[in-house]
Amino acid sequence: MMTIDINAALSIAAAVISLISLAAAVQLYRTVLHWRERCTSLEAILPGLQREIERFASISVRTGRQVKRIENHYSEVAERVDLVEARGPAKALDAAVDSARRGADTRHLTEQFGLSRGEAELVARLHGRKKSA
């Protein structure tokens, strides 16, 4: 039977531990290299992503402005519809014609009777006082 003295056993154990440690260090080094490459590739993508975010933010701002313009336009249309609904169509138009015959200008017809600018101009041309030359 072979007997191994304690020093030989410790030497073998130290060698095995050293080999395991070396293998772990190599694996750790490979993992660090992999993550370093991954970080580098992600850092290369970041400027493009930032440009895309800025582009979307710009689009969002423009869209917000357009929505605001549409809301403003819609509120003007809603006010105009309210005016048209509030007046009796024939009654208000008759009153606008009478006012035009008395010399009212298009601005007055628009404000007083809720006519559009085109309507007011038409009423003024058809029924307004003739301008002398």
The profile of the biggest β sheet is: none
Which percent band covers the strand fraction?
under 5%
Helical fraction: over 70%
Parts with pLDDT < 50 across at least 5 consecutive residues: none
Order of helices and strands: HHHH
Shape verdict: rod-shaped
Estimate the mean pLDDT confidence.
87
Number of E-state strands: 0
**SS-based structural class?**
mainly alpha
| Rg (C-alpha, Å) | 44 Å
How many helix segments?
A: 4
Whole-Å distance between the termini? 140 Å
The total domain count is 2
Question: What would your notes on this structure say?
Answer:
- This protein is mainly alpha-helical.
- The protein has 2 domains: 38-86; 88-133.
- 85% of the residues lie in helices and 0% in strands.
- The chain contains 4 helices and no strands.
- Helix 2 crosses helix 4 (117-127).
- 8% of the residues are buried.
Q: Gist?
A:
This protein is mainly α and 133 residues long. The protein has two domains: 49 residues; 46 residues. The chain is built from four helices and no strands.
Describe the secondary-structure layout.
Blueprint: H1 6-86, H2 89-101, H3 106-113, H4 117-127
Please tag this protein with its features:
mainly alpha, 2 domains, 133 residues
